[in-house]
Amino acid sequence: MFYRPADGHGLPHNPFNAIVTPRPIGWISTKGADGIANLAPYSFFNAVAYVPPQVMFASTSAKDDQDGTKDSVANIRATGVFCVNIVEAAAQNAMNVTSATFPAGTDEFAEAGLTAAQCETIDCPRVDGVPAALECRMTQIVKIEGETNYVVFGEVTGVHMRDDCLNDGRFDVTRFQPLSRLGYRDYTVVRDVFELERPDD
Question: Peptide bond before 22: cis, by omega within 30 degrees of 0?
């Protein structure tokens, strides 16, 4: 099968995000100018550089009560900071609660029964007890093709790692089993890992 996205795929559901899988989930916490915390998962998320460490996430829809975007991007525009919380398998239900479309000003930490902790390097909440959290200073917000598509880039200014996820000096994903996004309504859990040496190692 071949299709041109501009012409449509002719399938019952869009296959695009099922093709680009698995995708890590960036559980983005922010605080609005009004001081109210916000928390939402984004599966268009990844690390993009080592030095300095940088990450990105993309917001691809809008809410009626925000200016052409969602709460996360609106808050980051206002404050210039955000935190990426890493989602473990055990937190799938709480993460799913925060994916709902709540009115602006809703505290998703409270809705999902989560505890907010204060970040160290930025004025922003983080999810207490997650395997890792990346405190970020926004470097740019890029408008890309599409009415509501924005990519947020941030420099990591602080890193939290849960002690039980460290194993012989390495951050061990098998200790917490990251939740990853597939297509449609599907998710997967990372349970097995293996190593490959590069030819020039």
Answer: yes
Taking the C-alpha atoms of residue 75 and residue 175, their distance in angstroms, rounded to an integer, is 32
What CATH homologous superfamily does 5-189 map to?
Electron Transport, Fmn-binding Protein; Chain A (2.30.110.10)
Cβ contact 41:99 at 8 Å: yes
Per-residue pLDDT tens digits for 130-187: 999 999 999 999 999 999 999 999 999 999 999 999 999 999 999 999 999 999 999 9
pLDDT in tens, 174-188: 999 999 999 999 999
CB atoms inside a 10 Å sphere around CB 104: 16
At residue 169, φ and ψ (nearest 5 deg) are: 80, 5
Tell me how far apart the alpha carbons of residues 169 and 190 are, in angstroms, rounded to a whole number.
Answer: 20
What are the structure tokens assigned to 112, written together?
A: 């999902």
